[in-house]
Amino acid sequence: MNIFRLALHWQIFIALILAVVVGVLFDASTTFLGVSIYSVFTFVGTLFLNALKMLIVPLIMSSIIVGMMEIQPDTLGRLGYKTLIYYALSSLVAILIGLAIVNMLQPGIADGEPVKELVGLSADTGEVLERVEDRGTSDLAEVFIRMVPANVVTAAAEGQMLGLIFFSLLFGFFISRVKGQPGETLKNFWKAVLDVMMQMTEWVMLFAPIGVFALVAKVLIVSGLDAFRPLAVFFVTVLAALLLHLLLVMPVVLKFVARVNPRAHFRAMMPALLTAFSTSSSSATLPVTIDCVETRAGVTNRVSGFTLPLGATVNMDGTALYECVAAMFIAQAYGLELGFVTQFTIVLIALLTSIGVAGIPSASLVAITIILAAIGLPAEAIGMILVVDRVLDMCRTAVNVFSDSVAAVTIARLEGEETKLAA
Fold this sequence. Notes:
The chain is mainly α. The protein has a single domain, classed as Proton glutamate symport protein. Helix content is about 75%, strand content about 0%. The chain is built from 18 helices and 4 strands. The protein has helices at about 10-25, 35-70, 75-105, 115-120, 125-130, 140-145, 150-155, 160-175, 180-205, 210-225, 230-260, 260-280, 280-295, 300-315, 315-335, 340-355, 365-375, 385-415; strands at about 30, 35, 110, 115. The strands form 2 sheets. The chain has a two-stranded antiparallel ribbon. A hairpin with a 2-residue loop joins strand 1 (about 30) and strand 2. The protein is globular and about 75 Å long. It starts with 7 loop residues before the first helix and ends in a 9-residue tail after the last helix. Residues about 120-140 have low confidence and may be disordered.
């Protein structure tokens, strides 16, 4: 059987399995012909990740602008509030699932005692503190500052996606108000740009199996499987909550709200899910997400061009869930009894920070620091979860991306579109 004749998601899945095998069998010191295999995987993985990131700015701009050009002014408000309501509700449900699971399994308690001494702090705690130092709830206000960039070129160069999205929304909206030949020229130009970017995305995705293999193998070669044992219950708690949201809540939305076949949607989104898992970046996965939603699920660019770039920036179901579980785990590990009011505070801050700090480096760690400060725990407690954070980051990013895709399909169906997956 020719592996290259397999569907892309199966190629990526095989690469994922091979990466796990390689990661278990070898370590960071292994060399081949005098060359460290870790450095080879780092090089290949970075090359693939850079190729995806290379597409982000022109793809986001062209997708949003074309989408906005095709939205009538009287439907813009309706599309906008549907999108925002979905994002808020889906993140809230994810947080509540995480809260329920962490209260039920209590990963911070072992044999009736807090696990603080058993788990200990990571040697990398100082590095984490340096990254999140001086962060606080005032960072939430920065979301509005980043939304209106002083220089859109600088915003694009620095990866400030909120500013780029806001500019593109305005630009696309006002293109539709330009009459005559100049307006048609602008519309044709941006449609052509979007077509080129989609073709470039499909070309880059031909190398996805190789990139995924390198990225995942690099992580496992360094961390191995032994590092997960002390935090196994925490790891299982987060994973169980993420899977519950992914495999129960999202299919219910697809089946009863969007009225599409959940299994068909999972199949359509598999390349995006596997890419999100390997890259741990919703933004880097965005080109693949758009391609899957439009080409494989049949959602028009009018909806996907608006919902997906926005979702990759502000809709973080998996991240919000993880923030809640991590904060609760740390509180349990320190033996802190949390009442209803404190847990409600965690839910509220997790919901806000999953949106507000999404553009900050180490966003989840920053958000968890904010939550810990709110409930009176030291920020260095984050060191306890660093060992498993990388793998869980891969898992929660896949949930983030899938939620974005469900939003696009659901809103498209609510807007009267048929899509390819209609039940």
